[in-house]
Amino acid sequence: MLAANFSSSWLAGFTVLASLIISIGAQNLYVLRQAVQGEHVRACVAWCVTSDVLLVVLGVAGMSQMLQSYPELSRYLTLGGAAFLLLYGLFALWRMYAAPDVNLQSPSGKAESRSLRNVLAVLVALTLLNPHVYLDTVLLAGSIGARQEGVDRWSYVLGAACASLSWFVLLAFAGRRMKHLFEHPRAWRIMDGVTALMMLSLAWWVAGSAMTMEV
After folding, report:
1. What stretches pass through the bilayer (predicted)?
2. DSSP 40-98
3. Which of 27, 33, 98, 159 has the greatest count of CB atoms below 10 A from its CB?
4. pTM for the full predicted model
């Protein structure tokens, strides 16, 4: 019976988080871009998995109840996320139209290298300033995990961790396989255009949802 409960809780955690993170979002696009460039990919995957697990644990531990109790805090987080998505989308739009090709691809054929600190700084911001992280990972996944009993809660968290690890490893692998498609600057411009469209659309949607929040 104990093993059955552990398995069902693990499967619940895996299924819930997988359904939430497998989408074309800001974080996933950024990780895919880094994987295509072959730049600090392991660190990006490590951060994404670690942040997912920590946020689920926070939700299970009670942060989901706190955000539900203080809707004004949720509204501020949402507005901050919308502002960041807007700025990132405008920057991607600038890269697509105005950035010289030398900034996208060096004469040696390799993408220009950035420091690990800079890469992770952007990824951390994309993760923690995205209101969907708190609405989905903390509120939804966390509240479901909080209903588990005893050791089953940790089984649920373990399942969520496995889902996150599986997805981001798969995303990194897919990015490396797509590297040959990005041998020319035009391909990077297309990716920047897709990124800009996604970020600006999300910013519009998120800002709209913040305006309709009851406080």
Report:
1. 12-32, 44-64, 76-94, 115-134, 154-175, 187-207
2. SHHHHHHHHHHHHHHHHHHIIIIIHHHHHH-HHHHHHHHHHHHHHHHHHHHHHHHHHHT
3. 159
4. 0.69
Judged by DSSP in three states, 177 sits in: helix
The string of pLDDT tens digits covering residues 72-129 is 766 776 677 677 678 878 887 887 787 655 333 444 444 457 889 999 999 998 888 8
Please choose, from the candidates 11, 21, 5, 12, the residue with its C-alpha nearest in 3D space to the C-alpha of residue 165: 21
Which range is least confidently modeled, 17-26, 102-111, 155-164? 102-111
How many structural domains compose the chain? 1
The two tokens of residue 206 are 């998120």
Count of C-beta atoms within a 10 Å radius of residue 155: 21
25 phi, psi to nearest 5 deg:
-120, 180
Alpha helices in the chain (DSSP H): 2-21, 26-37, 41-58, 64-69, 71-97, 116-128, 131-132, 142-146, 151-177, 185-211
Give the burial class of 128: count Cβ atoms within 10 A of its Cβ; 0-12 exposed, 13-18 middle, 19 or more buried.
middle
Residue type, 83: A
Q: Which domain covers residue 51, as residue numbers?
A: 2-211
Instruction: Return the ∠ at Cα 43 (arms to 41 and 44), rounded to 5°.
Output: 65
Length of the chain measured in residues:
215
pLDDT tens, position by position, 54-69:
999 988 887 656 666 7
